[in-house]
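User: I'm new to structure prediction. If I give you an amino acid sequence, what do you actually give back? Let's try with this one:
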Amino acid sequence: MCKDYTDKAHLRRQIIQRRKELSREVLLVNSTQIMHNVFALPAFNVHPVIYAYMDYGGEVQTREFIIECIKLGKKVALPRVTGNTMDFFYIRSITEDVEPGYMGILEPKTNRRAVEKTPFILVPGVAFDLQKNRMGYGKGFYDRYLAGYPNAYKAGAAFSFQLFERIPTEPTDRQMDCIVTEDRIYV
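Assistant: Good question. You get back a string of structure tokens that encode the predicted 3D arrangement of the chain. For your 187 residues, that looks like this:
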């Protein structure tokens, strides 16, 4: 775990660079362990609906996680960005129901909008802290979306080097219910 940071832009650049430097093997091994830890969460097991994300730019890899959720009979939804808005849409297949969208990230091409008020949401981020604060890429998509779903269970997925004692926050930032790394789960 790293020290406190007060400059969001500097921290973002530093973490994104560190993710780029991960070898493919370390990225996959650590992502697999993180997803194993997510599967162990009681909240994951009791929620029939999982809102996940398609990884981008060295984020925790989610493709196998999504495939496994579908195999487990979970209803799965992924985000799609339109303008300044992000919404989740159900998918049945990671190969047939997605296409490149915002920033080239794979997004649902279905129009089956997800409507659960209390889903389990796997949330990506650039950095997290021990108070379960999250820092994203700075566009606010997840913070705006999560503001409308205060009762959803929010699990941040991160590599251990993305976890800090304290990160800078703003009033619009949304806290996670837990942070899941390859080393442990922070609740």
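You can read the tokens as a compact description of the fold. Here is one thing that stands out. Helices lie at 8-20, 24-39, 42-46, 63-71, 141-147.
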